Amino acid sequence: MSKYFISVIMPIYNAEKYVKKSIDSLVNQTTNEIEIILVDDGSTDGSGSTCDQYDGSENVKIIHKENGGICTARNAGLLQAEGQYVSFIDSDDFMDLVAYEKIIKVLKNNQADILDFGWRYVSETGEKTENFHENPKKLLLDESYIKKQVLPPLLNLEKNRKNFVFDFSWNKIYRKEIIDKYPSQCSGGQQQRAAIARALINEPKIIFADEPTGNLDSLNARELMEYFVKINEEKHTTIIMVTHDSFVASYSKKVYYMKDGHLDLSIDRNTKSQDDYYKEIVKVTTQMHL
Fold first, then answer.
1. End-to-end C-alpha distance for the chain, whole angstroms
2. pLDDT of residue 138 exceeding 80
3. Which residue in 87, 95, 88 sits closest to 21, CA to CA?
4. How confident is the model at residue 164 (pLDDT cuts 50, 70, 90)?
5. CA–CA separation, 180 vs 36, rounded Å?
6. Which phi and psi angles does 115 have, rounded to 5°?
7. What is the pLDDT of residues 54-94, one digit of tens each?
8. pLDDT, tens digit, for every residue of 223-234?
9. What residues contact 87, with CB distance under 8 A and at least 6 apart?
10. Are 72 and 15 in contact (CB under 8 A)?
11. What confidence tens digit (pLDDT) does each residue in 171-196 have?
């Protein structure tokens, strides 16, 4: 069994201004039960060199990788993590020096799957803003409480600010066993469905959809487009799409064609059936490529 209780993973990309102070806040923690995994995600400034200054520290691991984004950096860190729990810290975050000692004590007393802690925002001028919700502290919240008090405001199903828990990853500690049960990467379709759900949950007045069906199968693509039509008709939501798919375009009321970065021509559906509209779109598209 690892001697580390928490693996702290920090993805780093071009954070030269803050990263040393951030790393020092981890290295100088009052507990020796954490390991620190620094993942340099292809930085082009001095961030990678700053990481290398900690090479040789007993509880510090350093990973240099090609740039792939914050998720790939976190996943690279997870592959090296040995702790029972995982903490994701951003490269401009600074932890109080006793933070992990207190966190470990709470986790050991409660055996929680996820621990959520408060945070303090410090501006460039030193101004501080604190966030501490009114959910019970240092207590294990049961399934019923989470479903009734925590999830509704988190999912924007109701406006309850006093129980609102931000969905940031950096102010939470996760049991690694749970993370390991699930794939570290989502398929393109899964990512697209999640993005669509997040875009629609607040019922926006305008939706910008860039290739909204690009990673969906035909059934899910049809369902999404029919839903777009429904909210446009019932809620008067304006939907602006970019697509290369004539079938997807046939759900619109108007199609604009771009050529060499400029609007070239447009087609209105008017009273045409979707089938006739689709045929016209295909015809015009074909002619433009001749």
1. 66
2. no
3. 95
4. low
5. 19
6. -115, 130
7. 999 999 999 999 998 888 899 999 999 999 999 999 999 99
8. 889 989 999 999
9. 6, 7, 8, 9, 34, 100, 103, 172, 173, 174
10. no
11. 889 999 988 887 666 666 667 777 77
For 225-264, give the DSSP string: HHHHHHHHHHS--EEEEE-S-HHHHTTSSEEEEEETTEEE
Residue 178 has which token pair? 């749970």
Q: What are phi and psi of 110, to 5 degrees?
A: -115, -20
Q: How far apart are CA 234 and CA 222, in angstroms?
A: 18
> Do residues 140 and 111 make contact, with C-beta atoms less than 8 angstroms apart?
yes
CA angle 104, 147, 193 (to 5 degrees): 95
DSSP state of 161: G
Q: Residues 206, 240: contact at Cβ < 8 Å?
A: yes
Helix orientation angle between 188-200 and 218-234, rounded to the nearest 10 degrees:
10
Please return the burial class of 126, using the count of CB atoms within 10 Å of its CB with bins 0-12, 13-18 and 19+.
exposed
CA angle 150, 152, 154 (to 5 degrees): 70
CA distance 54 to 154: 38
Q: Closest Cα partner for 9 from 69, 85, 66, 116?
A: 85
pTM: 0.63
Residue with tokens 């069906």: 213
Task: Quickly count: other Cβ atoms within 10 Å of residue 105's Cβ.
Answer: 12
Pair of tokens at residue 169: 């990853």
Q: Is 69 left (phi over 0), alpha (psi -120 to 50) or beta?
A: left
What whole-number distance in Å separates Cα of residue 29 and Cα of residue 148? 36
Rg (CA), the chain: 24
CA distances from 260 to 165, 264, 268, 288 (A): 46, 9, 22, 12
